[in-house]
Amino acid sequence: MGAHFINWVIISLWAGSSALVVTPVTDPVISKVGDNVMLEIKPPGVLGAVAWFFSPAKIPVVSWVGSDPVIGAGYENRVTLNTATGSVELRSVNISDDGVYAFQGTTFTPGREPFSGSVTLKVYERITNVNVKPSPAQPIANQTLKLTCEVLGSQTVPSRLWLKDGQPLSTSDRITLSVDSSVVSFNPVLQSDDGEYQCKASNPVSDATSAGYRLEVNYGPQQASITAPDSAAEGSSVTFTCSAQSLPPCIYTWYFNGTETAQSSQYKIASVSNADRGSYTCVAWNSVTERKSSAVKEFTMTAAANSGSLTGGEIAGIVFGTLAGVALIGVILYFCLKKCGH
Length: 342
Known about the structure:
The protein has three domains: about 5-125, Immunoglobulin-like (Sandwich); about 130-215, Immunoglobulin-like (Sandwich), CATH 2.60.40; about 220-300, Immunoglobulins (Immunoglobulin-like), CATH 2.60.40.10.
């Protein structure tokens, strides 16, 4: 017996009558891809006929009116009808089975009574993996940043929760979430946002949490400075050290009197000479932020400690010694003359 004929029989059974609305046992029915599900109903008496349709196009699923059930096209080997209750088992469901299933039927006792209703089937894919993707890949301080919660396996993810260092992420005027919480936006991102971020995605049949994404905001260089003496003796060794606050660490370039001389955080002079007097400039460059910061140091040379010239102390000592010698000679002459006078 064809499905259209069965449907016509069912409809004719209650023609001109208002149908009793039957509430399904469970609505909606929640399942995951591959599950077997039961669309369960309880008719208001002894079942006489029933037909199920996939709404809203009313695609026939299964029909029965006192003989073998007729299975609709595409549902062969997947549907079993309980002819006592009118309930339907649908096996190995997939995403295309998600939707509303309408039923119509009639009972023969205690009286011929038509009934109808519907049940919603929600089919979800299992979430297999969750990733956090930054954009741009290298965050820069005081610029915008977006973190996207990328969910694999499921196309339907009704819930996403963002975590920072294991705690729910606090939002603000600067830190906002998209309508579905799939994207967190920093406008702008700051160094204080550094930390480990995770996204927990869930649907009614599964959930998964991403691995931690370590946010390190690139910044700088800031406050470049040179550590070195203002002067050094001729022939001595001197080390100039340049530093700046930066992530990633800076590339340092040295200039002497405007001419590039080296690339390193330190610049060493093995033996200071008069030619080393002048202006030393360090330029710190961050390859990610593409920003620079510089510092300048003026350096002079002093005479070597072992050179032929005398220091001020040495000259004072010689003068003092000379005057003391002259005084001693004067005392000796005084006593000699006094003695001779006697």
